[in-house]
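Form 7-S
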Amino acid sequence: MKALLFLLAAAGLAASAADVSGTWKGAAETPNGTVERTFVFKQDGNKLTGETSSEMLGKSTIEDGKVDGDNISFTITAKFQDQEVKLRYSGKVTGNEMKLHVESDAGFNIDYTAKRVS
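Output:
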């Protein structure tokens, strides 16, 4: 009986996780102007995969992605001026919008607002 209650509780938690699968477009304001990025997420339970792209940094694969309730986190490795830079994303999903904070190995931080487009 306890095992059944545990399974039902676990299923309820999984059902309450945000579903971020699909395409999202985000923008961030920087001292050099607006930076736009497209995210294509594939979610399987709490695991998050996919890719992201921007004009400035090109296309990158999402690594170590996870969704925990309405929280999201993942890492990408981007190329900037022939150097690889790790970017760590974390944020919160509210319906069809997400707020993402990005930290880089290069010492800069940026905040995106992304909206689901499909």
